[in-house]
Design goal:
The protein is built from two helices and eight strands; from the N terminus they run E-E-E-E-E-E-E-E-H-H. By secondary structure, it is of the alpha+beta class. The longest helix has 69 residues, at 130-198. It is a single-pass type I membrane protein. It holds the Pfam family EMP24_GP25L. This is GOLD domain-containing protein.
Length: 202
């Protein structure tokens, strides 16, 4: 399962069209709220885009920005249990010598599940005391951990069923192979016996 919060910083070089792409991956469960922000340093002669999709069979597209500004926020809810990929592409604008090729520093911060909720806003709207707001956050984290545990348990059951089915298939395949080799061996012995008898060698 995905951690409630994740942050990463990296250097993104640029290149002529189609540009240089760098992708980051995080597994996130279905129906999970994802909130994050991106920061990029200023720099000449390049433009940076970002596309957020998942690796499910549906290839869900969650967010796309063809020209990132210095700071950008995003939010979406996942549609499937899958690895979500955050891809950044830097394209060089105009001509530049290799020694002049700029680089940009990119910072990506992602909150998922309970950590993505704005509990301070909810506490203000409900006029809760600070300790009540903290309790609300703790309860949400407990609910998230419980849901993740149930999800892992269901995946374990599913994988166990697959393993048992595979083991049964391997067992019957092995048994069939042994029977086939036994029959082929018996046929070869009978064939050679008749051949030698016909040649009066035995």
């Amino acid at each position: 399962m995905a951690p409630p919060a994740a942050a990463v910083k990296f250097i993104l070089p640029t290149a002529p069209q189609p540009g240089h792409t760098h992708c980051l991956y995080q597994y996130i469960a279905k129906d999970t709220l994802v909130v994050g922000h991106i920061e990029v340093t200023d720099g000449p002669m390049q433009t940076i885009s970002c596309q957020i999709t998942d690796m499910s069979n549906k290839k869900n597209k969650y967010w796309n920005n063809p020209t990132l500004s210095l700071e950008q926020k995003f939010a979406f809810t996942t549609h499937d249990d899958a690895d979500v990929q955050f891809c950044f592409t830097s394209v060089m604008l105009g001509q530049a010598r290799p020694s002049d090729v700029p680089q940009r520093r990119v910072s990506l911060h992602v909150d998922t599940g309970a950590e993505a909720q704005d509990y301070d806003k909810e506490a203000r709207e409900k006029k809760l005391k600070p300790i009540e707001g903290d309790f609300l956050r703790a309860q949400a984290l407990i609910d998230m951990i419980t849901a993740e545990s149930e999800h892992l348990r269901s995946r374990e059951v599913s994988m166990r069923d697959v393993n048992e089915s595979t083991n049964d298939r391997v067992k019957w395949f092995s048994l069939g192979t042994v029977v086939a080799f036994t029959l082929v061996g018996a046929w070869q012995i009978m064939y050679l016996r008749r051949y030698f008898q016909a040649k009066k060698l035995i």
